[in-house]
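Reposting from the mailing list since nobody answered there.

I have sequence plus structure tokens for a pair of proteins and want to know whether others read the tokens the same way I do. The first protein:
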Amino acid sequence: MEGAAAAAAIRHRTVEANGISIHVAEAGGEGGAAAAVLFLHGFPELWYSWRHQMEHLAARGFRCLAPDLRGYGDTDAPPEIESYSAFHVVGDLVALLDALGLAKVFVVGHDWGAIIAWYMCLFRPDRVTALVNTSVAFMRHVFIRSGADAVKTTDHFHKAYGPSYYICRFQAGKPESEESPPLPLPAWLTEEDVDYFAAAFERTGFTGGINYYRNMDRNWEMAAPWADTKVQVPTKFIVGDGDLTYHYAGIQDYLHKGGLKAEVPLLEDVVVIPGAGHFIQQERAEEVSDLIYNFITKFTPQPN
């Protein structure tokens, strides 16, 4: 199933949680006893970014839940910048699970969704059975103020990449109003897919999503109580070798020589997909879906 056909097979609902209305796309799990998987999208994306994985896992007996995060799609977009901290977004997710009667879920994240997933596993590991994160690794110095020589998140990126780096540019002004030239579509993205995303962002704009970046320093500061906390959740990490995040200074040594494992003791492995870029769950949909399925089934009771 592709594009609108896959989207048409997905149920939609609005859930009141944490003081906002959250749009949730859902597939599978009609019987009520299925293990649930919570998918967290990145920027500038929507629940729709997970359409392939939702179809794949729903067909294999899982209940798939993919919310539009606050500020995106059909979920409420509070006007205040400070309403987009990681604490607000994790609060949304915990309240969503409460509203749906789910004690624990598998979490799958990408891009900003991966960052939120890391924070969720730090703040509320009791709600997460296991984690599959993609593209953005856990980076304590970027996510959490810790140590006497701690450097504020935006200062870190400014020093590393200069003021024109997108994270730095997003901090001030109105970058959401800037126009960008149209580019040819990659093979994994159809005109139909672009139309779906475009219609949503024409309605909402990009301010909600950019406000996540404008809270990076706030997140870093407020997460200080977790300065020494490890991510104590069984984890698999997936990244494409063409992803910008795989080429941060020192990141490959960190990923492959024990650095990430030290921060995430229950890390099973790091999977690098050759030739894949940033939007990995769409670029390599079947491969990523299989990796997710093969990992989370280790924590799912199997029939006798």
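The second protein, same order (residues first, tokens after):
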Amino acid sequence: MVDGIMKKYPEAMIIYILLRLPLKIILRFKFVSKAFCTLIQSSIFIDIHYNHTLTSTYDNILLKRSNKEDIERYKAVFSFLSSDDEDNLNSVYPDLDVPNFLRVTSVTSDKLIDSNHGLIALMEHRTTILFNISTRNYRHLPPSPFQISKGFYQSIKSGGFGYDSVVNDFKVFRISEVYTEDRYGYPEDGETQVEVYELGIDIWRKLDHVDQELPILFWLNSSMSYKGAYHWIASVAGANIILCFDMTTEIFRNIEMPKTSKFLKGTLYSLQLLNESLSLLCYPCLSSGTDPTTDLMEIWIMKDYNIYESWIRKYTIIGLPTENPLVVWKDYILLFQSNSGYLISYDLKQDEIKELNILGCQKSMRAIVYKEFLTPIQRQS
């Protein structure tokens, strides 16, 4: 009967009907018949579904957090969250164990990166997992094959993940410094090394055109993928800038940050997406002894990408103590993790704060806003 439906009605009509179903229902049709499975897995349907979903306003939250299992063992889980009419977060699916991330270091040293194409990367310094949020398929990337010469050392500074629209492929990259040590054990003669992994051809390679004077990067500094480039908060000669890596040309460039407030005992920055624009959170370092009742948070938006004059200050917030901002959702809800480990939501419009019943180890939470796409990835068991 099912195959009869496929023969009776034009394929375009069947696609039209499928596009109006939730993705979890579409995925069930893969098991109805071979014809449906072939259609749903075809590149044509995947592209049509991507373009259809891209224009929708329905976004969920993917939250990664870690919980302690015993003295030296932690367990990382993904939570899939959506909201009701009052912006209360609720689970869409049961929590999912994060594969291969059971080590102590996964609590505070991992990065969760969205590609805006249905795949996310969960990165540690030397480990990367690519994960399709919708299909639950994942790939644990092979380690970089490049060895450091005898007498040299490697310090991994940062990493990233994004989509190259020209070659229609996803890229993972790591930035490190390779150096020697002097007779007293201090680093010297350092050179920047960038390694790039391409998902489609499953190969790591080195870039041979890297500027040796890249800005200073730190692994946990805020970063994000946007407009075909990867962006980091970096430092040059004591001043902060936004470093960009073009996913297609594989060339670095800088974006100047706005003149934000400076705090006496430390200023922190977080890159976010707000109103579809590159945005910057500026806030005090609370562990330095600042006063959260008087120190403020600023949110800046770059209305025209890569145009310094288009930076505008959108919000100024007083008395919101956070050192772990996660994501801005629906353009007005800021999610962050409190010092007690709970997930907190703050309404930028109504100046309302809520503590949510979601708990993780301190500084273990990562979050992205996502849409559900069918982007294929080889499944690993």
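Reply #1 (J.P.):
I read it the same way you do. The longest helix spans residues 43-54.
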